[in-house]
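dumping the sequnces here before i forget
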Amino acid sequence: MSTVLIGYGSIEGQTRKICQRVAQKVEALGHRTVLVDTTERSEKEEWPNPDAVIIGAPIHEHHYPAAVRRYIKAHSEAMSKPPGMFLSVSLAVMSDEEDDKTALQHLASSFLESVGWQPADIHQIAGALKYTEYNFFKRFIMKQILRAAGGPTDTHQDYEFTDWEALEKNVEDFVRTRLEPSAAA
Ligand SMILES: Cc1cc2nc3c(=O)[nH]c(=O)nc-3n(C[C@H](O)[C@H](O)[C@H](O)COP(=O)(O)O)c2cc1C
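..and the predicted 3d for all of it:
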């Protein structure tokens, strides 16, 4: 049995939900998990020496949360050893435009370079639109963006775009190909 550290920073809660689902899947595959909310943990806390690391981070205004950045930077040396997977959560991932896809890849790769972590796998995951939970300004901004993108603009309801089946498949592939071969070695 291996230990997988799953760290996340979530502003509206969807990345937390995604990482909780990732933890459930890893456990169902027979491994232990340590779930870390990077917004609550101190970087000085002891590193649990996991056999694999999964980090989830949402994009807000073209940036990943500062807490995730700080967490990875603080542990980048230890994180360079075990296999890693980065889950980038956004809405732009649903765009059909090539430019948007390129921009997302660039955002993730420049973030990872700046924090000094090179995960083996990077996945772009669709998040959620929580109109009913946003304050007036966020709701207004998000509605404008979604209108321009041809997305839903009914602010009386929330929309969850995460493909849970695809997420679980990514986790299973990661565990089987990256974690289990190294555990067996
Ligand atoms: C204020 C705000 C700004 C956002 N900015 C972006 C953005 O720049 N690009 C993008 O693709 N998605 C953007 N999103 C969508 C989020 O990435 C999406 O809602 C995600 O599910 C949020 O994850 P969280 O709930 O873990 O914070 C934004 C959402 C909000 C509320």
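The CA atoms of residues 145 and 151 lie 8 Å apart.
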